[in-house]
Amino acid sequence: MNDPEGNSALGLLRADPAFSLSGAAKGAVQISILPLADGNPAIALMLPFIEGEDGAFSHVVTAILKHTRFTAAFSESDLVTSFLVDGTGKLLAHTDVSRVSASENVSYLGIVRQFIEGKFNATGNGQTSYKEPTSGEARLGAFRAVGFAGLGVVAEVAEAKAFEAAKRVERRSILVAVVILCLSFLAGYFFSGSLTWPIQQLALAARKIAEGDFQVHLHAKGHDEVAELSSTFNDMAKGLEERDRVKATFNKFHNKEIAEKLLSGEVKLGGERKRAVIFFSDVRGFTGMSESMEPEQVVELLNEYMTRMVAVIRAHGGIVDKYVGDAIMALWGVPLGGDNDTVRAVSACLAMRQELAVLNELRVARGHVPLKIGMGLNIGPVIAGNIGSDEKMEYTVIGDSVNLASRIESMTKEYGTDLLISRAVYDEVKDQFSFQACESAMVKGKSAAIEVFKVRGYVDQGREILIETPYSSYAAEKSDKVVHEAKSVEAAPISVGTPAVPPPFVGKKAA
């Protein structure tokens, strides 16, 4: 090994006044930095060897080691800088080779000064906080005395960065150790190990869980606490995913509003008395129509029809109780009652009348037969709760009011209209809508005839706005159920305007 001028490293060592055989004879280990031709310095060590009878060392061993053999042991990252110093604070090993070549002394650093002053514990370790003299930056430092030639390994980190990392990890441990063998190597232990990455992965996974993404999986490595926590987190994610899948299925095959209230505990599992508005509808002549269609066409027809009608029901605060073939049963007032449920129910029926007209325009344009429906509304006391067996239950309502609503819907054929309401419904909404009285009818389960009414439209500031379509009335079927006794309802002055979807009713009265 030679310097840039061709002088051998051994010649340079002999010429270095820092190296003294007399000093070595007294048992002192001497270290010097030698420049080499390749730009990398070398570290020269002179170690006393063979103690004479008079207590003096009669020989010395000299070792010249390239600085590159130590560089890998001292890293400088965005967080920690580590280096090797002697007992005076002179740099012996650092990632910045130029500082080592210049024999820079860093005793001005607080942590190095503490090392030089011997302020360390029994294990040779020490730490302190200090400010970098030039920039004034607050730093944290730690050192470990090597126990050889008065050397020490020093590590320092900016205080702001250290605290930032500490917020994300449970613990950061750094082990610094340097072992120098007198003839062949200088080895060290330095700060290592970090839990930052697995903790960050846990935080990211938790954020995804909070956003509803349960498709997360952490790779648990090893058998430590973090690996165990990762495995437990995976089990939790699977459990939440399964629960979400069950809830989604529950909402899909049951009423969504009822399912959410059941899961939240707002609805009692047992039966309870309620006052509800009950709605029934079905498609006229659906059985005959479906006989001439392929099964796939029937399903497509029902899905298109149901999607439109159910959207209207939900937009007006109703909930769909069940589907029976082409029939829809919907409710207002259960499981939790709202303001003006009866008004909202009648408004929904008028909106469904218009929505059917829109659907029929599309069907006619496709060359399909338009649909006609019947709708019936009743209001009264019901028993609401979970009905069924131990194996399968559903939340629904039962009672005479439900049966009567179904009977009223079936009577629309006899009255040639798509919508009939009971006297009880009429009494609650007579100021908001326009009606036509019908002859009374006998229904199954009732000993006396019942009154029913056709709904023509709604009343807005004393004006009757008709909501009628080509499909809202048709030829009445003859039936012995109709009692030919004319009933009258005081009619409001009629001012027919362009049919429009009635606005959401919140109890508005006619002027």
Give a short synopsis of this structure:
With 511 residues, the protein is of the alpha+beta class.
List keywords for this structure.
single chain, Helicase, Ruva Protein, domain 3, rod-shaped, 511 residues, nine-stranded mixed sheet, five-stranded antiparallel sheet, alpha+beta, 26% strand, Alpha-Beta Plaits, 15 helices
Can you tell me about this structure?
By secondary structure, the chain is of the alpha+beta class. Among the domains are: 66 residues; 58 residues, Helicase, Ruva Protein, domain 3; 199 residues, Nucleotide cyclase, GGDEF domain (Alpha-Beta Plaits, 2-Layer Sandwich). Helix content is 32%, strand content 26%. The chain has 15 helices and 19 strands. The strands form 4 sheets. Strands 11, 12, 13, 14, 15, 16, 17, 18 and 19 form a 9-stranded mixed β-sheet that branches. Strands 5-4-8-7-6 form a 5-stranded antiparallel β-sheet. It starts with 8 loop residues before the first helix and ends in a 45-residue tail after the last strand.
Q: What is the CATH third-level topology name of the domain at 268-466?
A: Alpha-Beta Plaits
What radius of gyration results from the CA coordinates? 45 Å
Which range best describes the helical content: under 10%, 10-25%, 25-40%, 40-55%, 55-70% or over 70%? 25-40%
Could you give me the name of the CATH homologous superfamily of the domain at 268-466?
Nucleotide cyclase, GGDEF domain
CATH architecture of the domain at 268-466: 2-Layer Sandwich
End-to-end separation in angstroms reads 109 Å
**DSSP summary: helix tally:** 15
